[in-house]
């Protein structure tokens, strides 16, 4: 492998094509670098269902064990199951997955003990530099006594921990369609949902890292078409889709209509605030709906706005002692889950909320889905700074308009707001817009897109 690993070491994880960009020998170096940077004497590893995952995961374990570190392998798991293991065992962890990327990709999501994130500024750059150096000079000197590699099953413990955080004892029977997308939801859902009063209709539960039915990315509308159709056909109460590594969940209502992740964030925030006596801080990124901070305040909480990205959310949760955090991308973070994200726990909250009253999901979420949103719209541009400057000049001198630069450019008026963020890895600008009604949102969306794409 080439010594320059900047193309596969991203802001939050390692991700690239196997074996073209990385392979098992490099995974071994990553394992050694991980334990050197974290200073761990024991770690935990897990992997998804991709064909390359078991080999990469075992190579990483070999690299760690060669330096005298004991490795606990939990084998097939979701990413949030790995976070559970890291938290419950108080060990640094490494999860082998490329989430929703195509089959030829794989990656590593790493964390310190207690599921604390490892990103570019919190150790990932150091890990990359060590792996680069060793790929040129040879592997580091092994320890006199190598560490052990042992297996441990954590699925039952993971399920019990989540079920202990949501009261599902009095929910009415519900019919739920779950689309696992041939990803790790097919592994975790049967155990977590066992014993709940659910008529479960499984879709694509067979673990298959080649994704034969559709890409395991439920944020792309094309990938929930099958789920929407099945919910309507079955007369189900709701549908839930998980992404490839099952750390994100996406919900559709009884009519098959998508429920925006911001509405789920607001719903779960209200429930978590109630569980904490009507007090607590809730983190939301700056492109979640206006509904989120409104609902948080209405339920006695304090909303805190952050940049987009899980490292920013987790850092703010730790700094503020927040009880919950949510993102527009269907990542949901819980203080009672070591500030880590778990789509499964969010799904359990939705089931508890729906099953605790008699109305349909569409009526339940209406109180949390108050505005018209555009969703994220990507545009390929040659000159990101130039386009952002053009947008700024178009709005900065208008009455009643505020601008801020927390993450890209956010422009806010009385009846609407929009945010434009540059991608860190591609020549893209990402637009999110929201307004108090659909015509205003459409007008603003098109007005800004015209400037972006000029």
Description:
This protein is an alpha/beta fold and 454 residues long. It folds into four domains: 140 residues, Alpha-D-Glucose-1,6-Bisphosphate, Chain A, domain 3, CATH 3.40.120; 100 residues, Alpha-D-Glucose-1,6-Bisphosphate, subunit A, domain 3 (Alpha-D-Glucose-1,6-Bisphosphate, Chain A, domain 3, 3-Layer(aba) Sandwich); 106 residues, Alpha-D-Glucose-1,6-Bisphosphate, Chain A, domain 3, CATH 3.40.120.10; 81 residues, TATA-Binding Protein (2-Layer Sandwich), CATH 3.30.310. It is 37% helix and 22% strand. The chain has 14 helices and 22 strands. The strands form four sheets. Strands 1, 2, 3, 4, 5, 6 and 7 form a seven-stranded mixed beta sheet that branches. Strands 17, 18, 19, 20, 21 and 22 form a six-stranded antiparallel beta sheet that branches. Helix 8 packs parallel to helix 9 and helix 8 crosses helix 11. It is globular.
Secondary structure layout:
Layout: E1 14-17, H1 24-38, E2 42-47, H2 53-66, E3 70-76, H3 79-89, E4 93-96, E5 105-112, E6 116-117, H4 120-137, E7 149-151, H5 155-163, E8 174-179, H6 185-193, E9 198-203, H7 225-234, E10 238-242, E11 249-252, E12 258-259, H8 261-275, E13 281-285, H9 291-298, E14 302-306, H10 310-320, E15 324-326, E16 332-334, H11 343-355, H12 361-366, E17 372-373, E18 377-380, H13 384-395, E19 402-404, E20 409-412, E21 416-422, E22 428-435, H14 438-452
Parallel strand pairs: 2-3, 2-4, 3-7, 8-9, 8-10, 13-14, 13-15
Antiparallel strand pairs: 1-5, 4-5, 5-6, 10-11, 11-12, 15-16, 17-22, 18-22, 19-20, 20-21, 21-22
Helix pairs in contact: 1-2, 1-4, 5-6, 8-9, 8-11
Protein name: Phosphomannomutase/phosphoglucomutase
Organism: Streptomyces phaeolivaceus
Family: Belongs to the phosphohexose mutase family.
